[in-house]
């Protein structure tokens, strides 16, 4: 189900409190089961405020513009290059306040659907055969953080977009794509856990907590693309001492915060260089460089070629 507008807030909260017992979605659309359904909110707006909604596993992303999402006192700005995850039973607040229109593509994965898929993905086949539909659903708590959109994620989003653009969404195609999305998210989650396990702590729970704190600092970097936060600000956001934070960051991400930020600037530069109408000087200034010479030197250090050579290679 894809909606072109946000559902009425009071109606939505009432349905959530009743676990969609009437099996009716917005505009009286029939639902296959109780519980929060699978739904995508693809709407364009300048202003929206959706406070304290207890949803299912939800992905917040934009096709154009930026929004903000808050979960457990952790608030992030979601730009075009990232998506943010909240978990089932975890209240979130979504807000949009922009001069230009923002096109959302927020994906809410239905409770019954996610339980069924995650059960098959995390339960050995012999147990599934023995227990059938009675098998216990495992708990998967995704990290509340910004995730970069990669090629596979964009492919899944495009598949949903294309189905919508064709005039009608096939229920089978919708469910297959949503199942593929959950498979993708679980693999990403496992990669994150492996990254967390690299941190130096005796207790596993301590490593997860340290990684959670580092993720808050990384989200701070991603949410402030035009700023250059210093070590004090980043370590403070992670509630860690400056040098403890620096050491843990290097172990988790394989580079220093400065190197990480410079890498983000280069990724942004590559995208801007695809537009032949933009001058290298203007790109350099927009990325916070004092002049095009310092930008070009760093770009060559990171890529092996100058910006002008990179532009010729891709155009």
Task: Kindly summarize this structure in a few lines.
The protein is of the alpha+beta class.
Number of helices: 12
Oligomeric composition of the shown chains: single chain
* CATH domain topology of the largest domain: Jelly Rolls
Poorly predicted regions: 124-129
- Radius of gyration from the CA trace? 21 Å
What is the number of independent domains? Answer: 3
- In helices, the fraction of residues equals 40-55%
**End-to-end distance:** 39 Å
State the total count of DSSP E strands.
Answer: 11
Strand share of the residues? Answer: 15-25%
Q: Give, in spatial order, the strands making up the sheet with the most strands.
A: 1-2-10-4-8-11
Determine the CATH superfamily of the largest domain. Answer: Jelly Rolls
Task: Assign the CATH class of the largest domain.
Answer: Mainly Beta
User: Which structural class is indicated by helix and strand composition?
Assistant: alpha+beta
Which CATH architecture of the largest domain is right?
Sandwich
Average pLDDT rating? 83
What's the overall geometry? globular
Largest sheet: 6 strands, mixed
